[in-house]
Amino acid sequence: MADNARNAALGALVGWTLGAQGRGRRSFKRLDFFDPIPPRMAQSDAIDAWLVGMAHLKSGGSSASYYRALFDGLSQHTDESAFGLSNVSRGLGTPLCGAHGNPLANGSRAIGRALLWGIVFHGLPNKACEWAYWDASFDHTADGVWMPVAIARAVSLAEPGRAVSQVVRDITETLPAESKLLRAIPKIIKDFDSPDGPKDIRENLPTALGIADSYDSVLTACWVVLGLLRGNGAFEPSVTCTAGCGGASDQAGLACGVISALLSGDVPQAWSAPVGDTFVSGHGLKEIDPPKTGSAFLKLVEEAADAHARQPVEPEPTTEGEGAAPAPDIDESISPEVRDLIARAPEFSVYEHGDIRASFRYIDGPVVSPGDTLRASFTLTNLSDGDVTLCGELTATKGWEIAHKMGEVFLAAGSSQTFAVVVRPPAKGRGDGEMRLSIGGAAFTAPVFGTQLWYAVGPLLNQEGTGFDKEYPAEKDMRLGQVFNGRSNMPVEWTAHNERGVFFDVEGLIGDGPGTAYYFADVTFAKPGRYRIVVASGVGAIVWLDGTKTFWYHDTHTPIPRATEPYIGVFETDGKVKVLIKTFRNLQPIPPMIVYFLAEDGSVAVPSGFSPID
Question: Per-residue pLDDT for 325 more than 50?
Fold first, then answer.
């Protein structure tokens, strides 16, 4: 296994470095080699995460607790990962921390991280899937988790002599029926070997799948499959095709480099030489001393694989004259446990303490309005080999009501029990709270978030798109009780909305047909500083900050809610800012408007409060 692991790790360094050169490119570029030739390997957040993963394995940590290692070991406040980091800092565990309020949950950043599990659990595909799931769930959900899991499984089974067609099946048979990759694969297989196949596929496939974000995990997986098919698994033609597709080509190049290195059994020296032997780590690593050389990094991966991968099994001797019995084959079936993980709705927050696992299920989500009830349940699991009887206490934040029927709990070895719970915050106030479970010497805390106080008015008129330029009286007059002339001459006024954050149901506010709406909030942050606001709408928006028109756009499109133009505004604040957003609906239904704030370091800035209109 050592040679396989070494080749895979070297393929990772080369594939990432090649792919990083084309990240963000929106069209296909035919590549023959690095362009330009790099002086060393490109720094990789994904490979930095491998160091965290290997350290967690060495310490005896579990897959379900790995999110804590990522949170403690990395400081990557960049787009997709920022939301997972924010949710963990607020108390959520996987998989909910990757799903809650995350507009970038289908991104690609977990693909590169998850490849590690296919390498260190080589020959153990279900183990690779399990670890990849808990890893990716840290900051992603749906296809953003399914792609890493499926590719990790393919890595765990890849070896010299395995056909690329089987690798593709290893990926697709892992996926649930709703994954968009299953729609893409037939299109790739149909055209990959035509003279301009890669160029045509790169140009047309995103539109055919309805994916606007070039960093989407499905598109990244498509470019991995395209490169492997085009190059028939050979290293050079596979990685050059994949890296030439742009988008998240660093993640795609990393994945294709690992798989093609395993399939071919080698990384050509002409490709590894430019990467050199200097290991380049990022500034996001915390409490981990990275290796100084690429050779030392390869050795770490070899040692991890030797400790955890399926070891070769010698054929068992039989009776004299019959020769040796064949070694047992690798079990390639997907276990029910892995199927359950993939199918599971990401409404759970899982915590572990010693031999006890507590899984909180938020039936109504983790956000509750003042005075409303939130339904949940929690499941206790005994991870030990012996039976236990536990006495526990379940409480809530002072002033909150909580109801449950938990008493003394008997758990046989490996068994679980589930209890229903209902919690309700006070009718006044909208701060965050928590449920606290103390049992068997362990303490578990599950957060409950309060809503955000926004005010909205609408629908106002938007005849043939004229609402964008028309200034309505509500834009200047935000008094409660003031009535305005709305669409179809219906009276409308500013009303308080308990928003759950990030996703705003403009469609529900405006209703059928064209219309205009305003949202307003008086926002407080924990400290003064420089912040960014992202407002992503499918038809357009105008944003005022403290009365100043800050940014605007008017275009019917599929929004890509990343912190880039035209969706972003920058502001300085002493801790408070008044936000006014004007948005629209044309004839066609629109997706939710996405609104979030970022601090100067790129971390998600969750407002600490919202003031009512005087």
Answer: no
